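thread: overnight batch results

M.L. [08:02]
morning all. the overnight job finished for the chain we discussed friday. pasting input first so we're all looking at the same thing
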Amino acid sequence: MFIIAAICSPPCLLFSNLTDIVALDYKTSAAHSVVSGLKTAVAIDVHFSLGYIFWSDVWERNIKRSGIDGSGTTIIISNIGVCDGLAVEWRTSKLYWTDTTHDTISVADLAGKNPRKLLSSGLYKPRDIALDPDNG
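M.L. [08:03]
and the structure it wrote out:
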């Protein structure tokens, strides 16, 4: 099991400010960059038990993953449109994302393998996504 205390004391908030992924300690309000030097990081989600951060870069048009401590950054999905929303489903280890360029919602495993489109008709600029694993 990954220990979140490596980046801040729980409860902890992770967010993107476009060029950095920042960890904010709720108790102390201390903030520090976990991943820096990004082009345009927009969407972000975390798989805490596996210790991964996922984010989309709308300038580079890809989805990246790193360790929750910022180590091991890698591109897991490339050649996509603008991804304004992504969500990790931790029970099935799936990653879902929106694509406003191609008006789609897609899914892949957490390594970016086996990508497929879930919805590709009837959408207009899907901007965000949220999952409900208990009622899905």
